Amino acid sequence: MVNHLERPAFLDETSIRTNMARTTGRAPRGERLVDHAPFRRWRPRTFIDALRHDRLGTPWGIDGAMSAEMSGLYVGTQLLPTLRAGDVFGPLTRTNGVRGLTLDNLSSHKSRGAAAALRRIGAWFPFLPPYSPDLNPMEMAFSKLKSLIRKAAARTYDQLWAALGRVCNLFSDEECFNCFKAAGYEADRKRHAPAAVIRVARIQGESVRPVGDR
């Protein structure tokens, strides 16, 4: 049986800094918990990745905040080579050879360069409805990632990127699948598509078909 969860990829980004520190902890009863955290303002870096059902597939870091230009560069140079023929987000009827990517509604994701590159390979790239983090399994993955980065307490950029590499390797295929499952993406055998795909399309008022079939 085809595993339909092999098809979708969810793209998102998060800000990371060298002043990230844990905000909670434990101490013996009656003793004060003491830790150290920097309070100066640090320039943010951005970590971007695409989550699949079994891996964090294409991690990338940039200096500064995400922009439409950097989003297009990431999609064109990092993500496109990883999209396989047959990847799709939606029902699998009449979709052979179509590839798919799902993004949230952030304005920087609406890059003309990225859209053109995705169209050239026949990809379908729907946007999630505004204010819908519950439909994005990447939000859950980033929650754990940032918690582990705070624990690492990296204070230089070299330490920060090294910590990110270690943390990304901690995401097993089972954990990535659980992120999908918690967001409602499970194979619907009757429709031959993830059930939540149909729910998203109905919210958007669109038919559940890839761009290549329209």
Summarize the model shown.
This protein has 6 helices and 9 strands, in the order ββββαββαβαααββα. Helices cover 32% and strands 14% of the residues. With 214 residues, the protein is an alpha/beta fold.
CATH architecture: 2-Layer Sandwich
The level 1 CATH classification is: Alpha Beta
Seen as an oligomer or otherwise, the chain set is single chain
Averaged pLDDT: 75
Note the overall shape.
globular
Number of strands: 9
Would you write up a description of this structure?
This protein is of the alpha/beta class. It has one domain: Ribonuclease H-like superfamily/Ribonuclease H (Nucleotidyltransferase, domain 5). Helix content is 32%, strand content 14%. It has six helices and nine strands; from the N terminus they run E-E-E-E-H-E-E-H-E-H-H-H-E-E-H. Strands 1, 2, 3, 4 and 6 form a five-stranded mixed beta sheet that branches. A hairpin with a 4-residue loop joins strand 8 and strand 9. Helix 3 packs across helix 4. The longest helix is centred in the C-terminal third of the chain and has 16 residues. The chain is globular, with a radius of gyration of 19 Å. The two termini are 27 Å apart.
